[in-house]
Amino acid sequence: xxxxxxxxxxxSISNLIQMNLTKVGYQCEVAYDGKSGADxxxxxxxxxxxxxxxxxxxxxx
Length: 61
Hints:
Helix content is 38%, strand content 23%. The protein is α/β, with parallel strands linked by helices. The chain has one domain (3-51): Response regulator (Rossmann fold).
């Protein structure tokens, strides 16, 4: 079975991705931030890592 790590900070989006991939037979794990995603990658083996990486902007006035 193919094992996928989903790294996405929006819980609703990550749950939707996980639900759809699980329906078609993939084994999925979810990390809700980059740090925990990196930790999971070091702890376990995955066939694919699906990550949405965004850089948050802060407006300084």
